[in-house]
Amino acid sequence: MNEFLRQLPKVELHLHIEGSLEPELMFALAARNGIDLPYASVEEAKAAYDFEDLQGFLNLYYQGMNVLRTEQDFYDLAMDYFKRARSEGVLHIDMHFDPQAHLQRGVPLEVVMAGLLRAKDEAEASIDLTVGMIMAFLRDRPAEEALHVLEQAAPYWKFLDAIGLDSAERDNPPAKFQKLFVRAKKLGLVRVAHAGEEGPAEYITEALDLLDVQRIDHGVRCLESDEVVKRLRDHQTVLTVCPLSNVSLKVVDQLSDHPLPQLLSEGLKVTISSDDPAYFGGGLLENHIACAQAFGWEADTFRLLNQHAIEEAFVSEGRRQELF
Ligand code: ES4
Ligand code: ZN
Known about the structure:
Elements: H1 2-7, E1 10-16, H2 23-33, H3 42-48, H4 54-64, H5 71-87, E2 90-97, H6 99-103, H7 109-126, E3 130-138, H8 143-152, E4 162-166, H9 178-186, E5 190-195, H10 201-210, E6 215-218, H11 226-235, E7 238-241, H12 243-248, H13 260-265, E8 269-272, H14 284-295, H15 299-312, H16 317-323
Parallel strand pairs: 1-2, 2-3, 3-4, 4-5, 5-6, 6-7, 7-8
Helix pairs in contact: 5-7, 8-9
This protein binds 6-chloro-9H-purine and zinc ion.
Residues 14, 16, 166, 194, 217, 275 line the site of zinc ion.
């Protein structure tokens, strides 16, 4: 089964590139940039990745990305993950990135975009891996700041496949970002949002009604509302579910308790992704292997999940046909 899963052409719709920063690269970039880390070794960093909840993870996620300073750093970050993913049979990645987390630290948007776009271009030209760009906004920061960053990003709008909404979900409902999403829609940008990870099923409804999103990232808590499940099924709205992330952040106690099998049996358009592979115990292949073990799924289930991902990926129609 593991060899089948490695060979299976896979597509990942939910990946935070800053969450792919492995401790080894974190140490290399810290040395290159003369930055002190709060860990004595790679092992100590890995041992610290033991989270109580989403906020506990986010604290270390924002701290870890402090080593990213130059265009080359962002390029190295992305290429490191792209090469690893490609070697595990991943052919397309829709990549979230968090400009506000870098702007706040004094890293200009131009530096972030130049590094990430160079890595995307190189991956597409040389390793047969295509990359979608999702500019994500931090929901625990002011809505006005997000609007300002979207306007500041005008030179890059043409490179964006979508905008997203991430970071601390609780008490930061989708409604807070209605203006941002209306503006993005006017610009012709597709919209996606994290909803129903730690937040309630109502946040999924809000994201659909007020933000007009095309995807729900996570969405596992939809099962708390029959009405929300029905709506997601009727519209075949894709859910980008992240199994190992949900275990690491204690959305579920263990993978065998995860509602993925139920989401599928409800007829929902489910996909699987790694979210933050450096922090949650592995990339897309590891997530596939863990699901095979926990749920006893056969090849057909994994083919279906990846077919869903291919149908929904931000790719040209020509590339989509190649992926099928
Ligand atoms: C995230 Cl797991 C998760 N949830 C929300 N926002 C995020 N940003 C990076 N990982
Ligand atoms: Zn996420």
